[in-house]
Amino acid sequence: MRIEIQIQRFDPDNGQEPTYESFRLEVPRHITVLDAIIQIKDEQDGSVTFRRSCRSAICGSCAMRINGRSGLACDTLVVDELDRFGEIKVQPLAHMPVLRDLAVDMTPFWNRIESVKPWVEREEGTEPEWPVEKETLMPQSFVDELDDVSRCIMCMACFSACEIAEVDDDFLGPAALAKAYRMVADPRDCETGERLSKLNEHGGYWDCTRCNQCVEACPKDVKPMEAIVSLRREAINSGLTDTVGSRHITEFLNIVRQEGRLNEGRMPLKMKMSQPMELLKIMPMAMKMLAKGKLPMPIHPPIPRVREVRRIMDAKGKGESK
Ligand code: SF4
Ligand code: SF4
Ligand code: FES
Fold first, then answer.
1. Any idea what DSSP says for residue 149?
2. Mean pLDDT of 294-311
3. Does residue 72 line the site of ligand 3, with CB under 6 A?
4. Contacts 24+ apart (CB under 8 A), 306-313
5. What is the pLDDT of residues 4-13, one digit of tens each?
6. Is the C-beta atom of 182 inside 6 A of ligand 2?
7. Residue 89 parent element (H or E)
8. Looking at ligand 2, which residue's alpha carbon is closest to its atom 2?
9. What mean pLDDT is predicted for residues 106-125?
């Protein structure tokens, strides 16, 4: 079949903004976007620049944005893109400087991965509680728990898709936080507390908005957002509760427990109660909302059968339901 692909071209040496260049080519029906770009490079323009290696969704090097969505070019069929969007436009991954065409400088991504110390820290002279022969093995239950996050191939698609990475250079991003959870949940590691404390700061797990974009972008089903939620749970369970994020969860659960639903009028009051100055800061906005009839009523009667809500929460375990 005959197709057209638009590739974003950029040459840092010519001082011009990126532009799209269209290529028309004859391809087999089930060709991938990566193979189509390789064909363009082989047959039409050898200067088209991109990364690739395995062509089998293993190495993670061919991630790019295809019709605006970040993913692996070797795992994306041309025909699927045409069916869905009627065109194929490819761009480099977002939130990283472009070196040339589709190749980005991966330094910002690797710096984040490195900053979470993605290795097991062992205390000198300690032995694990289970028998050690040659390697220090984990019990199978831990291996199962870490199965998702262990599948990461460092392709950066999630980082490119992340809305917070777009606006906050300090945010660690989904892959680094998933890797951090990989280490926090590893029973052989002796720095769990230090890791959680560090990740409790600005740029860590509380800055994620849970938009799910990283989950959708990930070609390996790592589910980074779930790892971030697990980090939050570990943090609260370990006593790291003095953050806006953890107060939000605690008060959210308390209000739902009392009233059987979220009372958005009470939420800011509960959250800021211990910080009167912060409460004063939101008063002008609250007055404006009140004037426009948009302020939710702070007093809601509990819903009927609220006891059943409490029973569900008790069964699930308070603190584990968000
Ligand atoms: S869920 Fe969180 S980490 Fe994932 S893309 Fe959204 S903001 Fe980023
Ligand atoms: S979490 Fe998924 S999308 Fe992100 S780097 Fe790892 S494999 Fe790629
Ligand atoms: S070329 Fe290796 S993942 Fe696509």
1. G
2. 82
3. yes
4. 306/258, 306/259, 306/260, 309/256, 309/257, 309/260, 310/257, 313/253, 313/256, 313/257
5. 999 999 998 8
6. no
7. strand 89-91
8. 218
9. 91
The residue among 220, 228, 116 whose CA lies nearest residue 162 is 228
Ligand 2: which of 152, 172, 216 to mutate, judged by most atoms within 8 Å of the beta carbon?
Answer: 152
Q: Which ligand is nearest to the CA of 64?
A: 3
Residue ID of nearest Cα to ligand 1 atom 8: 162
Amino acid residing at 322: K
Is 161 in the same domain as 76?
no
Number of H helices, E strands in the chain: 14, 7
CA distances from 45 to 11, 110, 184, 251 (A): 14, 30, 47, 59
Say if residue 146 is in the same domain as residue 75. Answer: no
* Domain, as residue range, for 296: 244-316
- Domain holding 181: CATH number? 1.10.1060.10
Residue 210 within a domain: yes
170/303 Cα distance (integer angstroms):
42
CB of 98 shorter than 6 A to ligand 2: no
60 CA from centroid of ligand 2 (Å): 8
Instruction: Give the helix/strand (H/E) hosting 285.
Output: helix 276-291
Render pLDDT for 55-68 as a digit per residue (tens, 0 to 9). Answer: 999 999 999 999 99
Answer yes or no: is 321 within a domain: no
